[in-house]
Structure formats: C-alpha cells, structure tokens
Amino acid sequence: MTRSQAREAAFLIVFEKSFTEAGIEEIVNASKEVRELVANDFAISLAKGTVAHIPQLDAQIEPNLKKWTKNRLSRVSLAALRLAVYEMQFVEDVPVSVSINEAVELTKKYATEEDASFINGVLGSIARAAQVQ
Predict the structure, then answer these.
(1) Which terminus, N or C, of the chain has the lesser number of Cβ atoms within 10 Å?
(2) Which conformational region is residue 67 in: left (phi greater than 0), alpha (psi within -120 to 50 degrees), or beta?
C-alpha cells in the first residue's frame, strides 16, 4: 500500500467517524467487512491521531476559513482539512507540500474542483502562518 492509498484510507475513516461515535478500530473492522477497506498501520495511525487532536486541528483551521465557519463546510472538506493539518503538525517525515497536495487530490476525488481549490487555499494559509511563527 502506498502512502497515498494509506492517506485515502485514513481520510475515509476520519470521514466516517464524523457520522458515528464508534472507535477507529470498530470503523476499520466494519469497513473491512462491508467495503473491503484496506488500512495499514500508517493509515490507522493517521486516523487515530487526527481524531485525537480534533479540537487542536479545528483551532488551526477555523481562523483560516475566511468568511466561512466550520459548520458550513462539507464533511468531506472538513475531514480532508483535519487530516492534512494533523499530518502537517505531527508527522515529521512528510513535507507540508505533500500533505496539502494529497488533501487537494482527495477533495477532488470525493467532492468538487471548487472544494479542492478552497482546501488548497486554507491549507496554504495555515502553512504560511506556521512558517511565520
């Protein structure tokens, strides 16, 4: 499994978590049975880390939404943002540009080109702000 595939699996887990109180392991096990979701250790680690840090991630995301609120975002966009910001902040061996690009590509696949452009702008803003600090 490539890292891109693992990120997509993590994204799907984080997205599904937005609909349920079930734990990550429970989501993964149910997904394997129903959709044959393959999630390696990297994917599970990303999903668990993202879910564990949602308040911190949202605190980074919300000031960068510019005329939007978190509640107006689609669950797809929010899951992509949370996953990318988690990776940007907590996964040291992944360049920020890779995290942003992967989030944009996931958003293109699961939402729209317009959503992907929005995600790119928000993540770019977060990345620039992190460099200034």
Answers:
(1) C
(2) left
**Token code pair at residue 11:** 């994204």
For residue 109, what is the domain's CATH number?
1.10.940.10
Q: Are 93 and 75 in contact (CB under 8 A)?
A: no
Q: Residue 102: name the closest of 125, 133, 131, 123 by CA.
A: 123
Looking at the 3D structure of the chain, how many domains does it have? Answer: 1
- The angle, 0 to 180 degrees and rounded to 10, between the axes of the packed helices 54-61 and 75-90 is 100
Q: What is the pLDDT of residues 26-59, one digit of tens each?
A: 888 777 666 667 788 999 999 999 999 999 999 9
Structure tokens given for 66: 């510019």
Query: Which single residue is written with the structure tokens 């929010």?
Result: 78
Entry pTM: 0.90
Instruction: Measure the CA–CA gap between 15 and 57, rounded to whole angstroms.
Output: 15
Residues 6+ apart with CB under 8 A from 53: 86, 89, 90
By the 8 A CB rule, do 80 and 106 touch? yes
Range of the domain at 60: 3-132
